[in-house]
Amino acid sequence: MAEIRNHLLCELPLAVRAIVTAEMTELTLRPGDVLQRQGDPVLRSIFIETGVVAQFRLLDDGARVEASLVGREGLVGIGAGATAFTEAQVQAGGSGLAIDADRLRLLAARYPPLADVLTRYGAYLVDEARMNAVCNAAHAMEQRLAKWLLRFHDRSEGPSLVFTQEFASEMLGVQRTSLTAAIGRLADQGLLVTGRGGVRLQNLAGLRAVACECYRNVEERLPEMGLPEAAERGACPAA
Ligand SMILES: [Zn+2]
């Protein structure tokens, strides 16, 4: 495996990284692919190399509300053998490195740097979930939309984000009409342009000014945990 882009794997010492990645298989992530079903046992862990995966909770009434967006900063499938709490579906296509979840647990028990990086990422996820709870209770929809777009962008390869407004409104838990109106207001301010199947971000600084503090607080939590920011792109250093 020549080039690795996943930040968690990049954090590993070269020797450990080689051992762990030797047990992984490359996986193509196509938009719409379901990587993990809510309620199924967690059998594999997928370290995201490129692309963006939405993790959402399916509610009894059929609604689906986003819990997190995962890209190169993280992985899908934590907790071997446990029941998955959320559904994981590819939003932007890319690739990942998959490993049997139980095998990952055994490797983490054997190699402390791997256990350490997984622990730090797990702690970040807890804080991200706490921040989301605060955000949903405290912040206006337009602020949350700007935050969502920035988080999506940080994990993508460029400024064009592919999604349907129906999907975004579901993920944010808002009415489709209010979502459309909010996207229109951001477009009127020149922060983005809408197109077929998504948006193209035009002014990141302007979007950051609209987004609530949760965007900054959650993204900064990664370096505070000793992990690279999600927006950092490129392959990890060879040594
Ligand atoms: Zn917020």
Short description:
With 239 residues, this protein is α+β, with helices and mostly antiparallel strands. It is 44% helix and 24% strand.
Protein model, in words:
The chain has 239 residues and is an alpha+beta fold. It folds into two domains: 7-136, Jelly Rolls; 140-211, Orthogonal Bundle (Arc Repressor Mutant, subunit A), CATH 1.10.10.10. The chain is built from nine helices and nine strands. Strands 1, 2, 3, 4, 5 and 6 form a six-stranded antiparallel β-sheet that branches. Strands 7-9-8 form a three-stranded antiparallel β-sheet, covered by helices on one side. Helix 6 packs across helix 7 (176-188). The radius of gyration is 18 Å and the shape is globular. The mean pLDDT is 94. Zinc ion binds at residues 135, 139, 143-144, 147, 212, 214.
Structural classification: alpha+beta
Distance N terminus to C terminus?
14 Å
Total individual domains: 2
Query: Would you give the CATH topology of the largest domain?
Result: Jelly Rolls
CATH first level of the largest domain: Mainly Beta
Shape label: globular
Determine Rg (CA atoms, Å): 18 Å
- Provide a count of the helices: 9
Q: Tell me the fraction of residues in β-strands, as a range.
A: 15-25%
pLDDT average, as an integer?
A: 94
**Could you state the order of secondary-structure elements as H and E?**
HHEEEEEEHHHEHHEEHH
Helix content: 40-55%
DSSP summary, beta strand count: 9
Instruction: Report the bound ligands by name, code or SMILES.
Output: zinc ion
